[in-house]
Amino acid sequence: MASVLEIKDLHVSIENKEILKGVNLTIKQGEIHAIMGPNGTGKSTLSSAIMGHPKYEVTQGEVLLDGENVLEMEVDERAQAGLFLAMQYPSEISGVTNADFLRSAINSRREEGQEINLMQFIKKLDKQMEFLEMDLDMAQRYLNEGFSGGEKKRNEILQLMMLEPKFAILDEIDSGLDIDALKVVSKGINEMRGENFGCLIITHYQRLLNYITPDYVHVMMQGRVVKSGGEELAQRLEAEGYDWIKQELNIEDETVSAE
Fold it and tell me: Which residues form the ABC transporter domain (predicted)?
């Protein structure tokens, strides 16, 4: 039975300022959803709140993974339950190699005695790094330390492919990528696509969706999802911008002042 991620009436504040004002969204495994919207409408706030960033206070609503409220879980428990976040600005961690980080992350989601053995891990890691056109030496470099922007984003997709979560939230994974890196990152996401994987892509640009065809496209404005459709919606946004949605829904020019 496919897993389901349900976001219900989610309200989120930062320092007593409400950013999300009732987000509703349902994602099933086997589906890829894209969220688009002007700057400052709360797109990145949504991803951070789902994964439990302490800066963001959930004041109302639920995020259910197969009926269980992940907002009641610790951050590591959310990851162990099958959620994954590719961050817009991946952190650098000195003293921890890529390989050690990935093996520890995989084993944290397994029962004691069922840990991945070293040879299985190395075989899988080498295969995925070659697929993503990454230098195999990067496995022994400290996590993201000294990586270029494109290398960091490829490394996020490497983590995604190694961990195989139920649901991935990709927060502006295309930000700062040249066309070659964009194609490689997209190739990795498309490789994950299937009945055991659901994905929420947060992006400003339709160009990423030229390589990853979404099943659903949602537009966020003023802290809510205001319109949903298929890939044709993203194409129209690219051609016409957001003004037509504002006019159609009588939305005034106002942002929530935070991503």
Answer: 5-247
